[in-house]
Amino acid sequence: MSAQSMPARPAEQPHPKVPHQQGMPTALVGMLLFIASEVMFFGGLFATYFNARAAVPAGTWEPPPGGHLDLPLAAVLTVILVASSFTMQFGVWAIRRGDTGKLKLWTGITLALGVLFLIGQLYDYSMLGFGIADGPFGTTFYTLTGFHGAHVFGGAVGLAIILARAMRGQFSARNHVAVEAVSMYWHFVDVVWIAVFTTIYFLR
Amino acid sequence: MATTTLEPRAGTYRQSWVLDWLTTVDHKKIGILYILNSFLFFFAAGILALLIRAELAVPGLQFTDYDTYNQAFTMHGTIMIFLFIVPVLAGFGNYIVPLQLGAPDMAFPRINALSFWLLPLGGGLIFSGYLFGGAAAEGWTMYTPLSNAPYARNVGTDLWIIGLTLVGTASILGAVNFIATIFKMRAPGMTLFRMPIFVWTILVTATLILLATPVLTAGLIALFIDRNYGGSFFDPSVGGNPILWQHIFWFFGHPEVYIVILPAMGVVSEVLPVFSRKPLFGYKAFVFATIAIGLLSFSVWAHHMFTTGAVFLPFFAFMTTLIAIPTGVKMFNWLGTLWRGKLMLTTPMLFALGFLSMFLIGGISGVMLGQPPFDFHVQDTYFVVAHLHYVFFGGSVFGVFAATYYWFPKMTGRRLNEPLGKIHFWIHFIGFNLAFFPMHQLGLDGMPRRIADYDPNAGWTLLNFVSTIGAFMIAVSIIPFLINVVATFINGERVGDDPWEANTLEWATSSPPPPHNFDRLPPIHSERPLFFLTHGHGHPAERPEDLVEEELVDEKPGDIEERPEDLV
Amino acid sequence: MTDAAFGFLLLGIAMLVVLGIVFAIASRGGPRGEHPKPPAGVHMPNPSFLPVVFSVAATLIGAGLAFRREEELANPFLMIPGLVLLVLAAIGWVRAANHEWREVEHGAHHDDGASH
What's the number of domains chain A is made of? Predict the structure, then answer.
């Protein structure tokens, strides 16, 4: 086995670098793909909801006896979450301009709104009068909203992390991929909520 | 032998090899871990298969009781699919894809390692049912109502659900990694249509994993809630729908079988050109056929449910038959690659040719099953068992062995012994057909699947006995394979960068590669960059950059190489 | 423990022994030495315990769900250590990512920062 080394040639590739970043940063591509998988996960859960709903006679798909849905509270939660998407985006725009101060402010507000949503969701659960074991409506309701809430919690953890890093001055205009990734995830969580809210509270 | 050795063979860094392998984020080591772990599960599930076949050889219960038998076929299927075939193909993908792209590693190396470690642990959870009163026993498809709380109270089924959730999550993370790597980390000059077909199949497979596996996860969670928290998803006594489980499972389950076959098709598409000394016939058609199969795979799931009465038969029958078209395109392109090639019947080539013939049979029985009038007669019989083994085993597993023999030199710097490899192949091939071909007839004769025992007067005894002999032959064929692997590790024939005179970039670096894969890359102007580097325009001495102007993406047909002496 | 379980346990141990031998032999091949240096511009990520720790944590949490007794949400003896380990692993992951971010930011070359 002879060890021929490659002769130097003008057409030879230079040392292989990680290719220059063109288009979306790799971490963001990863987040987008992960979000796609989460969309399919919620798709599966929605499928169970629609299947259960289609199995009962028209107009009878409702909470079990003794239970009720609190539309006003849910509407308030929706407003909170949608607002938090706006504040998150303000934060992203801020750091794109290099404004770390505003990033911290808007991220903090977003986090607070997210936590408020979670508290509101838990309060809602405590007042509804039915549980996961109370027939198809109860099961699908709690599974769908519960897993959405879990995702909100995950997003809140992400927000807390970027807030902490922002406070340590780790983000700049040209290097803030984590902020973009978390914001993408947060918008996804918001969109899922809009779908959940519309489906559960309006498609009756 | 033309080589492009760029550096002396890279050694392994040894402080403590246990720590080294536990903490590695190197895609090559992770790939090897995947492969080794998968083969471990392969042997475990294979032993379960032998138990099943031993029991079925003659009527009467000789070795198991009903519950043990149910656990055996459930775990056999689960482990073979989720813990052997998908991970081993992911392992080859992990090792080879960055190399074929000219990249130094995967896009997310630490998540890559995480994806691996979830496998032995998740698989261990699934298997641990045996330690706690019995493993899951409701079939790898886990149909409700049988798998639901009133009937299957065993913790083994819950462990199955949880373990599979972990394994599925690992898959999804791996899929994210593969797609990001393929889109973002190709070497300069490698456009999408210059990627090797193996990379294309991994790309489509990863997309299927990304979109289908989460649906399984949703279903698994729903089943867990039903079993443990009083849920009403699938339990009809409280308003649930047992058929819903089948829909959710098969919406995942059908893309899953393409997840299992596409990378094996990619391997075959790598091996056939190299050992025919010809370019792959119809590269672009291959790419589009693969994408078409991926897309169509989401539209056929209910062909597993024809007999439930809850399915719109014409649509699913039509879409199922439609999938045969891109598959047929691939078949003909492989034949076109072989046509007038200078065939070198090395062991990887034998397994690739075995794939072609066995997958053809499995594909034909699949199209038969896709016709509802026929399916109504053979659903849940051994005809289905025959079909699935011809595609899973005759297809994917043959592809895995082809990959093993083909890429073993790259991974270890040593080539597996050819005579032993051929012995492995032939015993394996004959045993496989002996084991599974009779099952077609058994199914037509009415033998149901998932039964531990059968009536001696049913007329099924002879074929069952023959099938058992075949199964044990397959087991015997593993012996020369294992001897080969161990002996080669100890004192096998050492090889350089490119022992097969192949076309793709993984052969342009040392065997095994250094940790960062490449010190220098050849210029990439086609889907066979190494071919052009080492052979030029048929004149090895010609400087390849002269080719830049007359860049040949489409090879001249019949480009035949001198057969190297060192290949038997 | 049933006979079947005992049999499988033995089988599992036997396989691990075989694999251990294979590993031991395989590790002897090739020259021992330093890592060859990657070319300039290529940043190889460091080895890490985090994937193993994370996986163990996930397994404990999963086992905690599977082994729950009646009227429990999950088995606390498995769930609590699992959650603790998960939090520790997550903290470790973030710190490792921070560390790499700092290396990239202050390093000589400009990476794509995708070291996860």
Answer: 1
Mean pLDDT in chain B? 90
Question: What CA–CA distance (Å, rounded) separates B301 from B319?
Answer: 10
- State the pLDDT at residue A152: 97
* Nearest residue on chain B to C26, alpha-carbon basis: B489
Tell me what the mean pLDDT of segment B157-185 comes to.
97
CATH of the domain at A88: 1.20.120.80
DSSP for chain A?
Answer: ---PPPPP-TTSPPS-PPPP--SS-HHHHHHHHHHHHHHHHHHHHHHHHHHHHHTSPTT---PPTT----HHHHHHHHHHHHHHHHHHHHHHHHHHTT-HHHHHHHHHHHHHHHHHHHHHHHHHHHHSS--TTSHHHHHHHHHHHHHHHHHHHHHHHHHHHHHHHHHTT---SS--HHHHHHHHHHHHHHHHHHHHHHHHHH--
**pLDDT, tens digit, 9 for 90 and up, residues C3-25:** 566 666 766 677 777 666 666 66
A12 domain residue, yes or no: no
Residues of B in contact with A33 (CB under 8 A): 175-176, 179-180, 210
- Amino acid identity of residue B129, one-letter, is G
Question: Which of A6, A12, A24, A26 best tests the C interface by mutation, with the highest count of C CBs <10 A?
Answer: A26
Q: For chain A, say whether B176 makes contact (Cβ under 8 Å).
A: yes
In-domain check, residue A88: yes
Structural domain containing residue A74: 35-60+69-202
Smallest CA–CA distance from A23 into chain B, residue? B184
For residue A176, being part of any structural domain is answered with yes
Mutate to test the interface with B, among C44, C46, C73 (most CBs of B within 10 A): C44
Which residues of chain B make contact with A135, given a CB cutoff of 8 A?
232, 238-239
Whole-number pLDDT of residue C3: 58
pTM tops 0.95, yes or no: no
What is the mean pLDDT of the segment spanning B487-501?
Answer: 91
Residue pairs spanning A and C at CB distance below 8 A: 40
Instruction: Name which of C19, C43, C59 to mutate to probe chain B: the one with the most chain B Cβ atoms within 10 A of its Cβ.
Output: C59
CATH value of B24-547 in 3.30.70.2740, 1.20.210.10, 1.10.260.40, 3.40.250.10: 1.20.210.10
A48 contacts B214? CB cut-off 8 A:
no
SS3 (DSSP) at B85: helix
Classify residue A26: in a domain, yes or no.
Answer: no
- Among the partner-chain residues C43, C90, C113, the one whose CB lies closest to the CB of A27 is C113
Q: Do B188 and A30 touch (CB under 8 A)?
A: no
B214 at A interface, C-beta within 8 A: yes
Query: What are the structural domain ranges in chain B?
Result: 24-547
The pLDDT tens digits for A101-132 are 999 999 999 999 999 999 999 999 999 999 99
Q: Which residues of C touch B413 (CB under 8 A)?
A: 29-30
Residue C1: pLDDT over 60? no
Q: What ipTM was estimated for this complex?
A: 0.89
Question: How confident is the model at residue A119, as a pLDDT?
Answer: 97
Judge whether residue A7 has pLDDT over 70. Answer: no
Q: How confident is the model at residue B40 (pLDDT cuts 50, 70, 90)?
A: very high
